[in-house]
Each structure stands twice: as C-alpha cells, then as structure tokens.
Amino acid sequence: MSLKSKSSINSRKGTDKLVYFLVWLFSFFAMIPLFLILWDVVSKGYKNFNINLFTKVTPSSMDALIANMNGDPIPGGVLNGITGSILIVGLAILISVPLGLFIGIYLSDNRDKKFAGFISYLTDLLQGMPSIVIGIIAYAWVVKPLGSYSAIGGSVALTMMMLPMIVRSTEETMKMLPPSFKESGLALGSSYTSVVFNILLPSGFGGIFTGILLAISRVLGETAPLMLTALGASVVNWNITEPTSALPLLIWDFYNDPNLVELVWSTSLLLLIVIFCLNWIAKIVSRKWKI
Amino acid sequence: MENIENTKELKPVLQLKNVSVSYNPGTFAVKKVSTDIYPNTITAIMGPSGCGKSTLLRAINRMHDLYSNIKTTGEIILKGKDILTMDSMEVRRLAGMVFQQPNPFPTMSIYENVLAGYKLNGIRLSKKEKDEIVEQSLKSVALWDEVKDVMSKRGSFLSGGQQQRLCIARALALKPEVLLMDEPTSALDPISTNKIEELLLELKQNFTIIVVTHNMSQAARVSDNSMFMYLGELIEHGNTTQMFTKPKNKRTEEYLTGVFG
Fold first, then answer.
1. Percent of chain B scored above 90 by pLDDT?
2. What ipTM was reported for this prediction?
3. Which of B60, B87, B120 to mutate to test the interface with A (most CBs of A within 10 A)?
C-alpha cells in the first residue's frame, strides 16, 4: 500500500515537472517572434531616427530620390504625422473619455436593468467591430456631410474604437470598489453626483486611467479607419476640418513609395516607443493607485 | 416594553410605527416593528442571522432607497417628523451611519475624511471651522492624540480599529441626531473592539446610538436597552439587564441561552 502510493506520488511529481517545462518552453517560443520584431525595427529604424524625424515634414518623393542617389540621409521627417496623431487622438480622447466614464458608471450601477444589459451588449458588439467597418461608418457620418476628409472624421472613428475599452475598464473598476464606499458617502447625506465625483471616480482612478491609456495606445496604431477619414497630408495641419496625417498613415505612405521606404522603419520605431511608454506608464499608474 | 431605560425621562427621539420592509412584494424582512428609542441611550439590536436587524437599521437612514426593489412602509418619526416623507439626503444627515467594514475614503487624508460629509454636501467652511470640527470630532472618538501629527496621511494608513474610529468621527462631524451602527466591531480585533465599546459609552452623553450586533456579550456590556428580533419581528424590547436576566419571551430566552442563533 505505502509503496504503491509512493510510486504514484513520484509519477505525479514527474508529470508536474513535465507540464512546467512545457509551459516554460512554449512561453519561450512565443517570446522569440516578439524579440525578432523589436530587433528588426530597431536595427533598421535607428539610421533615420534623428532630429529631422521630429522637426521636418514628409519629404517629397523627388527630394528623397536625389538624397538616396547621393547617399545622403532622407531630408525630412514625420512632424506632420506626429502633430496629426496628437490632433486626431487628442480629439478622440476629448470625446470618448467623458462618454466612456458616464456609460461605465451607469453600467456598473444598474447591472440588473434591461437597458443597461442592452447597452452592455452593444458595447461588446462595438468592441468586436472590424476597424475598416468603423472607418466606413465615420466616412458616411462625418466625411460625406462635411464634404472633405478631415481630422474630426478620424477622431470620430477612433472614438468608436476607444469607447468600448474605456466603458469596460470604468465598469470593471467601479465594480471592484467596495459597495460601502458609495453607501457611506450617501449615508453622509450627499447626492449621488457628489459621491461619483468625490469618492468613486478618485478611488477608481488607477484602473480607469490605465484603461484610458491602453485604449490610446491601441488606437495610436490604427490605420484603416484613418485612410477613409483623415486621409493624410504632407503638411502640418491643426485645422480639424482639413485632411490630416498620422503616424500609421505615414508608414503606409512610405511603404508605397520606393524612395521613402527607408522611413517605414524609423516611423515604426517611433510609434513602438510611444506605445511602449504608454503601456509602461499604465503599469506604473495601476500599481501605484491600486484599490 | 414598559421597562425601556429612559435615562432622562424625555420624549422618545425616534419612534418606529408599524415599520415593514420588503425585498420582494409579499415577503417581509421586517414585519410591523413598533417601538420608541429614547435620547442619550444605546440600543442594541440582536437576533440570529437574517432576522432583519440590519434591514431595520438601514430603514432608519433611508439606505433602502438605493435599491428600487426594497419597499419600506410605516412611520419612522425622528424628532417629530416622519423621515419616510422627508428628503432622503436630509434624513441621512440627521441619522449618521457606521458600517461593518471600516471604510475611510481611500483618496482622502485623515483630515479630509473627517470633513468628507461637508465636502460631499458642498458646504464651504473656513480653515478655522474645519480645524475645529476635525479636532473636536477626532477627540470625541479618542483618536486625536494618535493622529494629530499624521493628519495628511491617507485614512488607509491607520490600523483597522483606528480606521473604524475615523469613520465614527466622520459620521459625528455632521452632528447627527442618532448614530446607527451596523456591527461596527465585527471586523475588528478584541482590543480595538474594547476601545470602540468604551467610546460608545462616552458618546451616549451627546448622541443616541443604535447598534446592530451579533455579539450578545457586547450588547450586555454597552447597551441600555436591547431589541431582540426574530424572523423580521420585534420579539422583545426592554432594559438590557432585565432582558438578559429575566427575558419575558421564551424565544428571547432560548436565543440568549444559546438554544438557537
């Protein structure tokens, strides 16, 4: 009896070790492509990753051709893409954050209402919507009526992509707060509005802010919806009704232009660095403002 | 209920008349409770789990309004006015509440936590008024000496017992007529519990306290009067000493002697 149970313990320990090793091995394999991507982008992108990238707009194809023939670095950068991304994403933040917060608070507070269930379902649908479809919708809603491709069209498309993420992170964060926060706030005779703004939102700041940052880093790289809405521009534009460029749009443009193709890598590197930083900040915030 | 302790021979501060609370239509968690609570007394509400003691307590500051399925009927008269017809925000300022889990607001400092009621209600105070309220409230919960040098720290920096006293100070800062406490010590260690119990005896000089408790010895130690509830009904309400020594009702006796509960 004792011998038998000992051998079965040994075999179970053996299985444990094997499973642990497999988990480790597959994790290692999964990491390899990630590092290869990073390596590729860094090694090919650093050449043109200089001050020009941040201070100059996209060069014309002709200038780039001449520079290439003379062996000079490409005379231009992605300033128009940087400012365009700031404009388009900034506007999208302005629209989606307040909306998302309110919807998230509503959903967390009214879990068993039919209307809330319906909204929650729509949020899931929107989250799963292909970005090109969202681009087409924004084209029909904004670009067509305004009669021109514009930054605001891009912002509307990105808003639709950010909204479900902000709604969900707000809702989940709010659900994690102990119900007694709300009750004890109300027990002090305050209004619901006051409790939301003075207690619930500040208490959930870490989770909500992290969700917003992740949503931003997600849409920063969106290309398809912007092709149909913001279109792109070779100059710096701050007018929300004019066509505007963005970093992912420039990557697409550079890819299509043999003379500028070198810039694909440095622009990708820039975008990766920004997204990496956003994720990093999100991590710090969520750790520091833990509930 | 003729033997309810009435320390100053005053009129009741709080009168319950046929108070019923239902979570679903037709099923009552509290059934037609009628009784009087006198000023400057501590009343303990006892009873087995699910007997409706917390439900009754929460009816007194209209907490049930938060949930649309809960209906409260009857009359709850606080200082001559039926609170069920008053504005709920006004009621909650008259009836302060302390919860089971200590829950100082996590983003506020100790100082801000005491003043939370004023901040949440948009009442502006001068720096001098604020300092006075904070000092007075923290002194009344015997927390002033422990925290006066760490006022700007978060409320969560304190120990569990200190946090609970901070929550009591937060409720007292608004100078309520009655203080409702829902098992205020069940999440605390014995030493912190002891401190809170001592504190209650101090506080009854100025406030009327109703405390829901699971702990019979706590009820015996601190309360002047006790209410025994069973299956939503108020079985007995009377002087605590008398109830513990000579309960009138058989079920009260059975509960107190541990036959059920």
1. 72
2. 0.87
3. B120
